[in-house]
Amino acid sequence: MAGFLGKVTAFARSPQGKKLLAQAQAAAKDPATRAKVQAQAQELSKKLKDPATRAKVQEQARGLTERFKDGKGGAKPGQQPKQQPPTDGPAYGTPPNEPPRYGQPPQN
């Protein structure tokens, strides 16, 4: 189990991870914490159901969709979009005196 999940599992099995898990389980069982989380969830649900908030979110989504369709990507207004590498350039690792080998790993 390599990678991120393996690291998380290893941490959870460590003494410090076991201590944090016990704290999280205790907080989850605490009625005050549960009430606080439930109140926050209800507040968020109310905000999402509010027509004004929904309209604002939908407008932002339309703006993002239009920017992506125009090819501007996720750049903020007034900010230059990130430069994309040319599609006709050589593949990474290709020596300059050889023709590009698209889709092949670099030759070291």
Keywords:
108 residues; mainly alpha; 4 helices; 58% helix; 0% strand; flat
Structure description:
The chain is mainly alpha-helical. The protein has a domain at 31-66. 58% of the residues lie in helices and 0% in strands. The protein has 4 helices and no strands. Helix 1 crosses helix 2. The longest helix is centred in the middle third of the chain and has 19 residues, at 31-49. The radius of gyration is 25 Å and the shape is flat. The model has no long low-confidence stretch (mean pLDDT 77).
Q: What is the structural class?
A: mainly alpha
Q: What is the ordering of alpha helices and beta strands? A: HHHH
Computed over alpha carbons, the radius of gyration is 25 Å
Beta-strand percentage range: under 5%
Mean pLDDT: 77
Shape, per Cα inertia axes? flat
Biased composition (Basic and acidic residues): 44-73
Region (Disordered): 33-108
Biased composition (Pro residues): 96-108
How do you describe this structure in short?
The protein has helices at 4-13, 15-29, 31-49, 51-69. With 108 residues, the protein is mainly α.
Write the layout of secondary structure elements.
Elements: H1 4-13, H2 15-29, H3 31-49, H4 51-69
Helix pairs in contact: 1-2
